[in-house]
Amino acid sequence: MVKRIKSPGIITVFFVMLFSLFLLLPFVPLIIWSFTKYWPWPLLLPEKWSMDSWRYLFSASGRAGEGLFNSLIVAVLTLVGNMVLGIPAARVLAQNEFRGKMIVFSILLAPLFIPYTVSIMGMYDFAIRLDFINDYLSVAFAHLIITLPYFVATIWFQFRLIGAKYQEAAASLGASVSKIFFWIEWPLLLPAVLLGSFLVMVISFSQYLPTWIMSGGTMLTIPVVIFPFASSGNSSIVSAYSLLFFVPILVLMLVYFLLMRINSRKQFINRGEDIAIRTNKHSNQ
Amino acid sequence: MWRINKKGYQINNYKGLLGILPALLFMLIFFIGGLFHSLTLSLERQPLAGQENRFWAYKELMNQSFLHSIMVTVGIAAAVAILSGISGLLAALFLAERSRKWKWLQIIFQLPIGIPHLLSAYLLMQVFMQSGWYSRLAFRLGLVDSMETFPVLIHDDWGIGIILAYMWKEVPFIVLLIYPFIVKLIADWKETAEVLGGSFSQTVRLVIVPILLPMWVGGMWVVFAFTLGAYEIPALLAKTSFGSIPVLAFQEYSQFGLERQPFAIAMNLVLAVISFLIGCLLIYFQMDWFKKGRRIW
């Protein structure tokens, strides 16, 4: 049989190009702005370059270091919370059938579908009544509400792909529940856990309003540091901060790809995944 | 020995369900609990501020300008959800068709996922402003001859800048959500459809979209709910009198003192209720659609 190879129409290519440019071009002036202080209108490139914004960033009043540090702590706490709460929940949802499952699932995913600001305002009132709760912890709780649905959905999907065949086989050979989890499910689950963790960290990094409300405006994470500059329109400093913001995200991306590569080297897992996908295909029909 | 008695089986079954409790309790206590706690907060009397009535916050909301704000906020959210839903579907279809050749496109299309909304607002502000980079490019190309002739896209009357900034973020989100499914569906169904004489567009219209519909609409609902409650983009890109509710509510919450906080909470509650009602409507339509037998899976 002769395969027809269609070439995309000119209009399609045009729109794809346009959309790619729409996504990519805004980064160009951002990078330029961070290296200049003065850039009047019709010039495509500034005439004078300066490093002042970068110097300000790392000066005592710039608070970039503090912002990065706080963001990182909150993100790690959020991630730990997601692991502890999310993985068992996703496992139950994927492997068991019980009455009211849809209701439980929709409660877990509810923050995706209902704006969560009002809940966080209520939580803040809780938190100031229970005075002893640490700021990092309460902000992480707010971020946990926002990120848990994404994490649970990702892990749930992977559990569905894995199916229940191996676990049944292992259980009939006498393996305990923990053994089944650590030796069978965890390795198969790892790609989804990595993807979910990446999403969780990125989402936690980018929260402005929840962080502000939950800490009463006192905790300086990176978005909280950037926002006043962005609304007052100091382009040069905002651009420098934004580029700084990309650093942890790029590092996370690199770590993600690195771990994925290490993970896919292990033959056992590869084979396991193939079988998992194949069995899943059969069960779908 | 091999017979499992019924009771033991049941206990085992319930023990297996324990894993869901922590997450469920967490959501019930903090998300739902926080919601109800907010509700009680918004019903508090404020005798010091002269608000003796329990429902003062809601009474104050009943006016022309707040209704206008609701229309604007819901309208923008709906426009963003529908526009990014459609472009996301088209983009995902295109990527799935030729992802092998154009791998770099996938990377570009997923880039904005990692960028926070605050920065996406700022990025787009910087290029679409009248003194921004695109107007400079247009000047170089001879399209405009002064700053003022470049169209007003940021802080404008219609919220075009807001919609653009949200689309910059949400189209890649929709692509990320439905792309894996489209790849799988094309792999599963394309040959069958071709053997039966269907063209690619027919395969998309009659097979892929119907199967994908619940997920696609769900994705649009997520975008809608997020846009409804998000603060950063309208705060940076809307003109001051635009009246986006999250911005108004946060102003009340953070600037006008403790006794105005119930008012801010009431505003946000209205948004939550709107999103919930629209969700119920969507679920109802989906049930109806399933009942009519369009279910393929």
UniProtKB/TrEMBL annotation, chain B:
<feature type="transmembrane region" description="Helical">
    <location>
        <begin position="66"/>
        <end position="95"/>
    </location>
</feature>
<feature type="transmembrane region" description="Helical">
    <location>
        <begin position="204"/>
        <end position="231"/>
    </location>
</feature>
<dbReference type="InterPro" id="IPR035906">
    <property type="entry name" value="MetI-like_sf"/>
</dbReference>
<keyword id="KW-1133">Transmembrane helix</keyword>
<keyword id="KW-1003">Cell membrane</keyword>
<feature type="transmembrane region" description="Helical">
    <location>
        <begin position="107"/>
        <end position="129"/>
    </location>
</feature>
<feature type="domain" description="ABC transmembrane type-1">
    <location>
        <begin position="70"/>
        <end position="282"/>
    </location>
</feature>
<feature type="transmembrane region" description="Helical">
    <location>
        <begin position="263"/>
        <end position="285"/>
    </location>
</feature>
<dbReference type="InterPro" id="IPR000515">
    <property type="entry name" value="MetI-like"/>
</dbReference>
<protein>
    <submittedName>
        <fullName>ABC transporter permease subunit</fullName>
    </submittedName>
</protein>
<keyword id="KW-0472">Membrane</keyword>
<feature type="transmembrane region" description="Helical">
    <location>
        <begin position="16"/>
        <end position="36"/>
    </location>
</feature>
<dbReference type="Pfam" id="PF00528">
    <property type="entry name" value="BPD_transp_1"/>
</dbReference>
<dbReference type="GO" id="GO:0005886">
    <property type="term" value="C:plasma membrane"/>
</dbReference>
<keyword id="KW-0812">Transmembrane</keyword>
<dbReference type="GO" id="GO:0055085">
    <property type="term" value="P:transmembrane transport"/>
</dbReference>
<keyword id="KW-0813">Transport</keyword>
<comment type="similarity">
    <text>Belongs to the binding-protein-dependent transport system permease family. CysTW subfamily.</text>
</comment>
<feature type="transmembrane region" description="Helical">
    <location>
        <begin position="158"/>
        <end position="183"/>
    </location>
</feature>
